[in-house]
Amino acid sequence: SRSIRLAVIPGDGIGQEVVAQGLKVLGAVLPQDVKLETKEYDLGARRWHATGETLPDAELESLKEHDAILLGAIGDPSVPSGILERGLLLKLRFAFDHYVNLRPSKLFPNTATPLAGRPEIDFVVVREGTEGPYTGNGGSLRTGTPHEVATEVSLNTAYGVERVVRDAYERADARPRKKLTLVHKNNVLVHAGHMWKKIFDQVGEEYPEVTTDYLHVDAATIFFVTQPERFDVIVTDNLFGDILTDLAAAVTGGIGLAASGNINPTGAFPSMFEPVHGSAPDIAGTGKADPTATVLSTALLLRHLGYDAEAARIEEAVAADLAARDQTPRTTGEIGDALATRVAG
Ligand code: IPM
Ligand code: MN
């Protein structure tokens, strides 16, 4: 019989609560003969306070023994900014070579958005996940003096750009509209920007059916708000993708619905699925967190592992649940229960 070995990192704040609902829905949607084996990892702020560790090597090794990772949220105000982000979340993305950070945006019915009633919005951002300004290259000079200098170097390799651009073309080619937009800033960032554009054009020759487009990132933010229906697949660098996908979430129903996958398409390492939102310490423990983004992330997880029908069932359940939502507030657990009932039914 089949099985899924799933590593679970609930993390900080609302991470614990939303992950519990994600697992509930996963359990409900999988066929009887698929065994879901979960192993939970105690990583995040609590662990760091207790032991000073963020992601010990032994745990990194053990995580490799899984088919996929489900992550809740990382970050806590009691930990200096950057420690958990770099030491845990980014360490995982880099160590497992998650070069495709996949972030779909869909305008679901009945959601609070400045764009309600607009034409259909259904696009996906392919954010590069292992390079750009996220590599930590750079440094500080003359720290603490009035002449302090800090650099943050964006690393872009032809190898790294080509593989993510190719993945984006593949995804665009598989969608009905077959459109791919490169977002960068090659009028200013001439070194990296021109390399991205050159590789984008070169790889494009292998995908004659895909229509291509280029936008500077500042112009892209305008179109995200005024004309989001123009986008199908977007490929962009790590930092631009980070910013654009928060904006995408905000205009398509809120950060409570935005799902993501940190994917290693080669299968060399487990891919990791997480909501785009953070740990929201202000509402942790109140039952106010919307688990929908995590549940939609489990759909991405299932599709990555080849369970397409089950992934689609989850997405349909979310669409139906959103369509039926009224003003009555529901707790995290109630939303999870409703979704679990829908996918099972
Ligand atoms: C995200 C987050 C992370 C990022 C942070 C927490 C390191 O904002 O997943 O979008 O910048 O990638
Ligand atoms: Mn972000």
Order of helices and strands: EHEHHEHEEEEHEHEHEHEEHHH
User: Going across the major beta sheet, what is the strand order?
Assistant: 2-1-3-12-11-4-5-10-8-9
CATH architecture classification name of the largest domain? 3-Layer(aba) Sandwich
CATH topology of the largest domain: Isopropylmalate Dehydrogenase
- Over all CA atoms, what is the radius of gyration? 20 Å
Please report the total strand number as a whole number.
12
* Helix coverage percent: 40-55%
**Rounded average pLDDT:** 96
Task: Report the total helices.
Answer: 11
Q: Report the top-level CATH class of the largest domain.
A: Alpha Beta
Largest sheet: 10 strands, mixed
Q: Give the full name of the CATH homologous superfamily of the largest domain.
A: Isopropylmalate Dehydrogenase
